[in-house]
């Protein structure tokens, strides 16, 4: 098994080698798969008129992320989800923690000190109200173990017991490895979505099967 640093380098090299057309096509396919998965979770409400209030008891909320360095582009999905009544949020780095800002169609983004696009302003959502987290990463395995960039932000987020949203890893299919190195404190995903399929990490044997 590759070490975490070796795996990060290998996956970043493969991702950077994608052409713009491949990145666009794969992102579109993954957004479609994610939209179907979110619909299957049974928490989408349709037919809302006007801007929805931020209330976890009324509307579903989902945390996404803004892509960088050839990551999967989720902005088209975010727009479609808002049309369906979802509250969408994006992370901002606050010291060693992630905070989440509500994003609407008119929200502007700017690069953080790490180069990650973050919303310039908006309403803060507490992490405990978010129903679904779409999580970036460099590698995942069928059991949901994840190798990120090394900052530990999502692991610290999910270590908070009040954060109970469904965790969905978002990856290109080549980022799914048979095994990835992990520590006991690393938070596994519930699902992983790629351009080929979506699989449940609760049943590792599900990898490679049809979307569900």
What does this structure look like?
It is a single chain. With 212 residues, the chain is an alpha/beta fold. It has one domain: Rossmann fold (3-Layer(aba) Sandwich). It has helices spanning 4-16, 20-40, 75-83, 153-159, and strands spanning 61-63, 87-94, 97-103, 109-111, 117-119, 124-125, 132-135, 139-140, 146-147, 166-170, 191-193, 198-200. It is globular.
Number of strands: 12
Low-confidence stretches: 44-58, 205-212
Reported CATH architecture: 3-Layer(aba) Sandwich
CATH class: Alpha Beta
| Span of the ends, CA to CA | 29 Å
Approximate helicity band: 10-25%
Number of domains: 1
Quick summary:
The chain has helices at 4-16, 20-40, 75-83, 153-159, and strands at 61-63, 87-94, 97-103, 109-111, 117-119, 124-125, 132-135, 139-140, 146-147, 166-170, 191-193, 198-200. With 212 residues, the chain is α/β, with parallel strands linked by helices. Mean pLDDT is 87; it is low at 44-58 and 205-212.
